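Annotated sample (chain length 254).
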Amino acid sequence: MNENFINTWVPNSELGRIPSLLEPIAKRREREGTTFDTSHPLAQAIMKGWKEGSPADSLVISPAFEVMGRLPVNERYRREPVTEYLMFLQDSLAGELPGFGEDTWEPEPLHSETALNKLNVVLNDVRSSQEVLNVFRAPGLGYQDYTVVEIDATTFENGGVLTIDISVGHAEAAGSFDLFNGDSELPREGAPENALASTYGVPPGGTQKITYTFNRGQHFKFGATGDWFSEKGSVNAFVAKISVEPTSEKREVD
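Output written by the structure step:
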């Protein structure tokens, strides 16, 4: 997330949103010799975006200081908060203006056509590393419910070492992660016996790594799912840093 967003907090009191604090804050600023410029474009965007009566709002603001999405704290959905907050961010970036023009914003169902279960990463000599932020869900004992990241490493004609550095969020579910050939069919139940490499039971807040050496450029599928011992339906977020260290071009020996 930090690669694509700048995350910051701005207290309501600093922008004059809490009348009872106007005088104390003015005295504090006078005493400290500090000011707060509410005419700044960022401050103006925040003031334009907040919802009347809401104690706190999550806002997505573009580099041009345009408000792209709003999620008041009292309208956050509690069923799958990690998934739904990520969908709020994606809807904002897609220009759908969640939180505006309607009383509440409700995300699409998890497995709709707009669900967060498929991503594409293309690696090459110019950009040999990318980070992916997404979510996984625990499928229940004996089943698989993969969030799939498709990896295109075909530009590395001589192959290389594919490395996936995985960090799991701090929600309830532990994660299991598998790497497959690009043309493999991912299993829906049972152990992923056709996986090229795997790591299981990565706990909330934990990190793990998958490495795989390949001899020629190819496609891969990276699957993330909740482990079998997490409560069915529980979710968590993960960040996967996907990179390739290319094999040096072979030289002919006279």
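Annotation: The CA atoms of residues 170 and 204 lie 5 Å apart.
Annotation: The chain has two domains: 12-93, 118-246.
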